[in-house]
Design brief:
The chain is mainly alpha-helical. The chain contains 19 helices and 5 strands.
Length: 454
């Protein structure tokens, strides 16, 4: 990867694209530290403990959400709108028709996605404003009371408008990277936001190391080695594929003979990518999010307390439900993305067939069986990455009990060893890095290709 980047900088046109991409990332990071007007935040916003929708936003925005900046919504509204459009493309015939209309259809779908992004950004900004107001993060009048009347309305309009505009600006920045830079712009911005949390992770590991306890002196290097092994494992999973042999029949057109060659149909093992993990974590974060808006004395000591504890990130039940939901959404997403009947029909139209399998219905049934097996294998493989930080923290919590006499917020009082960077982040980071390197290699190959005009 490093060699590819070094060689890319030697080409003037590719170097210009890389520098342009870096400039857009710099703008994104500057916007991620500029606070929204009318906010009174001395330190980070308290987003609660465990797994909830606010910690998910904080992860995806590179902590911009917890500091109330103009890019606090980050790229999540665009990601959500893209997923919604993908799902609606299967349910609504008009959108499915647009997807098959080529370039014009894609332009219309892109325009609809942009509008939906602004709408989702507006709704998220509105919810974020009420969250800030309920937790006293907004500026108050000179008498110490909250703004009322026209001042309160003006304050709300400014905050919501700035946050929504930040969503639109990030969407535009991502599109500029896709046009004039390297890689997929939305993925690059998401990558930059997650990477910005690395200093926090390093500081967290340093705090454990600084305690001087033997158990942490052993666990900190173990964690670092495990992360390196997980990166290598994700690369293996991302590149793994099943190649189905395809044989094309010979046909004569005029005086020329076409076909007759043997090739293969590649099917990725992890065909759903990171989406099953995102869907699963979003579903499991809903109870913890609801808990944040309920006063603790109303559910303390009742059955609701046990219910909410099940959905905390430090629960074995949570890990089990996470695992099952990942498998469910992997099958769900593959069902939407891959249509074995259409794949079999395309093979038959091109005079292709799988050796030993008759064209038509037998081919579609065979493809369905292969895809079902690969989906299960891929879901199990990504589940290892998603569940490792959770299981590791649970095991450490059992092995390292909290110290009763320690300070309330100290590491000794907490017990165990939590990891703030989850498997979702690692899969996104490695996937974006691999895809960007592939694009760099393809552009360098095209640049040095000597065509027939040479």
């Amino acid at each position: 990867m490093i060699k590819t980047i070094v060689n890319a900088f030697k080409a003037p046109d590719i170097r210009r694209k890389l520098l342009f991409t870096a400039f857009i990332i710099l703008i994104f990071r500057i916007g991620s530290i500029i606070p929204v007007p009318f906010l009174d935040i001395a330190e980070e916003i308290e987003v609660g403990k465990g797994n909830n929708i606010l910690t998910y936003f904080s992860l995806m925005t590179g902590s911009a959400f917890t500091y109330g900046t103009i890019f606090a919504m980050s790229i999540t509204p665009y990601i959500n709108s893209s997923i919604i459009m993908q799902l609606l493309g299967v349910a609504i015939p008009a959108l499915e028709k647009l997807q098959k209309e080529g370039e014009e259809g894609r332009k219309k779908i892109t325009a609809i996605t942009r509008i939906l992004t602004i709408v989702l950004g507006l709704l998220q900004s509105l919810a974020y404003f009420f969250f800030l107001r309920s937790n006293d993060y907004l500026m108050k009048a000179s008498n110490g009371e909250a703004f009322t009347g026209f001042d309160a309305v003006f304050q709300a309009i400014v905050i919501i408008a700035v946050l929504t505009a930040g969503t639109a600006v990030i969407m535009w920045l991502g599109e500029q990277i896709s046009i004039d830079g390297i890689g997929n712009g939305i993925s690059i911005i998401l990558f930059a936001g997650i990477v910005s949390r690395f200093p926090t992770l390093i500081a967290q590991l340093y705090e454990y190391w600084k305690t001087g306890q033997l158990v942490y002196r052993i666990l900190v290097p173990v964690v670092m080695v495990c992360f390196l092994l997980m990166i290598a494992y994700i690369v293996l999973v991302d590149n793994a594929e099943r190649r189905l042999p395809i044989q094309y029949a010979k046909r004569v057109v005029g005086r020329k003979m076409y076909g007759g060659q043997n090739t293969h149909m590649p099917i990725k093992i992890n065909m759903s990518g990171v989406l099953p993990i995102i869907f699963a974590s979003s579903i499991l974060s809903l109870p913890a999010t609801v808990q944040m808006f309920i006063q603790e004395d109303k559910y303390k000591g009742t059955g609701w307390e046990k219910f909410f504890n099940i959905f905390q990130g430090d629960s074995w039940w949570y890990a089990l439900m996470y695992f099952l939901l990942i498998i469910f959404f992997a099958y769900f997403y593959s069902t939407i993305q891959y249509n074995p009947i259409e794949m079999a029909n395309n093979l038959r139209k091109n005079n292709g067939a799988i050796p030993g399998i008759r064209p038509g219905r037998p081919t579609s049934d065979y493809l369905m069986k292969i895809i079902s097996r690969l989906v299960l294998i891929g879901a199990l493989m990504i589940s290892v990455v998603a569940l490792f930080p959770i299981v590791y923290s649970l095991v450490c919590k059992m092995a390292i009990p909290p110290v009763k006499d320690a300070a309330e917020n100290s590491i000794a009082a907490q017990g165990g060893m939590s990891i703030s960077l989850g498997g979702t982040s690692l899969i996104i980071l490695v996937g974006v890095a691999l895809e960007t390197v592939r694009q760099l290699e393809s552009q360098m190959m095209m640049r040095h290709y000597k065509g027939f005009l040479d």
